[in-house]
From TrEMBL, chain C:
InterPro entries: Cyt_c/ubiquinol_Oxase_su3, Cyt_c_oxidase-like_su3, Cyt_c_oxidase_su3-like_sf, Cyt_c_oxidase_su3_a-hlx, QoxC, Ubiquinol_oxase_su3_dom. It is a multi-pass membrane protein. One of its GO terms (molecular function) is cytochrome-c oxidase activity. It comes from the Bacteria. The gene is qoxC. This is Quinol oxidase subunit 3. Its main location: membrane.
Amino acid sequence: MKIKWALLTILFTIATVLTGCDNPLMVLDPKGPVAATQADVIMISIWTMAFVVLVVIVLYIFMIMKYRASKQRDDYEPPHIEGSKVLEIIWVAIPILIVAFLSVVTVKTTNEVEATPKGYQEQEPLVIYASSSNWKWHFSYPEEDIETVNYLFIPTNRPIEFKLYSYGPIASFWIPQLGGQKYAMSDMVNTLHLAADVPGDYMGRNSNFSGSGFAQQTFNVKAMPTKEYDKWVDEIKATAEPITEEKFNKLLEPGHVGQSTYTGTHLEFSPAPEGEHAGHSMHGSSDTEKTDSEKSDESTKDSHEEHSEHSNMNH
Amino acid sequence: MDYFDRFAVPHPSPAIYASMVAIGLTMLAVVVGITYFKKWGYLWREWLTTVDHKRIGIMYILSALLMLFRGGADAIMMRAQTAVPDNGLLDGQHYNEIFTTHGVVMILFMAMPFIIGLMNIVTPLQVGARDVAFPRLNAVSFWLFFMGAMLFNISFVVGGSPDAGWTSYFPLASNDFSESVGSNYYAIAIQIAGIGTLLTGINFIVTILKMRAPGMNLMKMPMFTWSILITNFIIVFAFPVLTVALALMTMDRLFGTQFFTMANGGSDMLWANLFWVWGHPEVYIVILPAFGIYSEIISTFARRNLYGYNSMVISMVAISTLSFVVWAHHFYTMGHGAMVNGIFSITTMAIAVPTGVKIFNWLFTLWKGKIVFTVPMLYSLAFIPIFTLGGVTGVMLAMASADYQYHNTMFLVAHFHYVLIPGTVFAVLAGFTYWWPKMFGFMLSEKIGKWSFWFITISFNVTFFPMFITGLDGQARRMYTYSESTGYGPLNMLSFVGAIGLAIGFALIVYNIYWSTRYASRNISNDPWDARSLEWATHTPIPEYNFAIVPTVDSTEAFWDSKKKGFKLFGGKVEKIHMPNNSGVPFIMSCIFFVWGFAMVFSMWIIAIIATLGIFACMAHRSFEKDHGRYISVEEIEETENKLRGAK
Amino acid sequence: MKIDNSLPLEYSTEENRLKIFGFWIFLGAEIALFATLFATYFVLVNGTGNGPTGEHLFKVPTLMLQTIFLLTSSFTIGLGINAMRLGSKKAMLSFFVITLILGLGFLGVEIYEFVEYVHEGATIQTSAFLSSLFTLLGTHGAHVTLGLFWGTFIILQVKKRGLIPETANKAFIFSLYWHFLDVVWIFIFSFVYLKGMM
């Protein structure tokens, strides 16, 4: 049967494509410890699964070739076979072993990627607040007291802790070559641990569908040695304008904007939804809670108006 | 005028205007045609008011085929748009509407009704029953599904299609970010169809558990019937979750409640959880019956009994149970921590074990068999390796740490098409071809069938395999365009070429139906495939009472035994048969449901209230109605039987 | 229609047995429905936003009144079915009427309670907590309302057509429904009201 050979060829082609060639796939070409762990897990699972596929296909080809009617006597009457305890136990037990092996790998690596990367634990992580709005990314560096839009500069060889949240629909913050993604949502802050080993330019994007401008919600990531990074921060501080609430609200309006840089961060006037500012599970009657809700009331109204303006433009 | 603005399509394009005209003309042609041929009475008596499970099944399948082409048209447009970088064929908004409706239509209005259609036709026959437990309710189920589907489908010409993805995540689907009525259509049309599905679930559980032929204990049921029983249990426990989720969505959008809002305590993650608590079992609702269909077909054409019957049943029960405890794997990236993700990874991977058991049992059903490569068998055989690929990539996706890289990418899209197309689409095509002679009294052409099989199977791989690769290269799903520098162009073009091949394959199926209807021989036996279960034991065409004498069963393959070992299937003598009466109420009530849904979508409260009263009036009518059904006399049965026997 | 006289009237025909079994499956679906509503409520119970909490809203007297009405009605419908099995049409009808009056009483108190809530500024739009509270209680209340109409229809039919397998079957299924609503209320009583007041 042609199809089996086609499948086999395809399998080998992917195996070669995935393992080594001049233009490797982004996810399998890691530039940081988290992405490296994930690429390893992917390769382990691909090889394990290739074994399973191979067993199935060998059995399959054997059955189809050997027991086709054209190769049997005309009066051959296939027997009645109920099943076999031994065989059935084998194909329950072996998959259980495979699943158990992969479970161990999963649990171990999931814990790994959810913590500061190995080898970086003794360093103080750089905290960057990455917030999404329709359809752009805002990066606030509280430590350096600067803010960028739609681009991200990071130092290499230092752990980075992204604090993710959103000013609108759920977005997913993803830099494939540095590590897997995580959601940015409006009512809570998610933490994503990443680090870059190699200086370079990387693609970052929102990968979670968030409306009509979603396809272009990307950002550039530039990883550079600490020295250069510090130089960049100093330069920004010397040249950029401060961010104001007015400017920030203008940035939040739905649409696409280019890259821009500011001193100060929007966290001062529009704090992230963490701690007492978290959007859900509010209980009690403190005053802060009340003002907070009022604020969010306003912001929903604002975004609503902005949105209608935007869709009017679309008409 | 403002009032009427809502009915306008927010993003009109020439294609949409053309569709409006086409829909209008088609409807006109249908009405004129029926009037010209004076078929209104026939249509009403024989189809719109029918409670016969076979006719209802055929109507389900016809609607499903119609929806297959609607969803397929969406798919072609998506592939065409992404075939080259920076393509301007569709704008972002239009593309978003198309992938949203593609998902909803294919899962809820194509896969489900196709499965339910086959289930309707085959299950009562396989258990040796005269109809389902509640024939009238069955008609209600069908018409609710049908009206839900129609309501959903008018969205793209009246008021705008939903555009928040088939998962419709909040807050994207809230009034703040989806202003058009599209998401109202989503909430209400699926709700109406979903109620119908829930009723089907109840109906078939009772039918299978209480109406089996004498001697057929649970472990002697055909495997398809087993799969249907388990599927219906999933329906009964999963669909209420969807009912609630959609009701909450409706209230958020129409009545200003705060369930999934960004302020006032609402939780957007609640929607994602509710959706997938239903959504994951839903996947098994469309896959398990497919497993049943394959079990029937593989054993028929390997000319052997099914290998490992007991472990087949146990594995389906295990899969259905596990299907309720894996939902969070759809959003590992929501940030619920390594612990929760680890647990859901393990439960998800555990599903691979019972599924593997099934694959090996099918392979060993071929062992020592005598394999005949008919069209249904070709689909079933192609299913095994392709579904294995879909399954193993599912295991890869189940591993949380790696899923952070696969999530929301084309890798995921490739995976679920590798599961759903061989799993469900191949199965319904196989089942459709397999049971076609029982439904219509002639066979579909094997030659054309084989052509379409090869087109579909090869094109399927050409379309979806490249997506695994672009996914690993960082192509996110649902992007309406991408720039040339990403390098995704060539592989996306390949996908487009595959999509064209798929379209040709499906067109060939339609041509096959046309050709076979005109030229195929009507002179076929009651059992043209030399099959093994009870549906082949009755006449073709099937008399309305299915079996003149209720069959007696003493093994999983009683019909086969009757052919080979002279087992006596029909003891007893002919007695008068009680049959249910036809009724127009299910159809009328569902029409009112349609009006109610339309009124709700556009917030026309007065009409909505009147329609609600109308629905309750129909239910009250049913309560007071005295309907004792009717009897078919012995003479009448004998006359029919003689005629059917004579036809051969 | 074959009638098996060895069984109670409501089970006496094949069709009746199917209907009762089918209704049990339907109740299974109803359990899933209410379980989802309870889960939603528990997720959102602290999402009170600007609005009042349960502690502020829930009142003992109305709660006790509702509970007494509904629990008693569950008892009286049991007596009604018992009377039906004994073949006493009159006693059965009286118990059914009492049941529906108690149900109406329950509904009256619930509506009064809702009006009170709204007066205190607690509407379904105020907060996620209130949205889920009103939806959970409202769904139960809507079931009771539907039950009132359904029960009335059955009383009319039994009155007109007497105790025959068909009407007995309907009355029995209705009693299952009514008991189910009572069970749901016990859950609402414990996990919404008592938990909220503590």
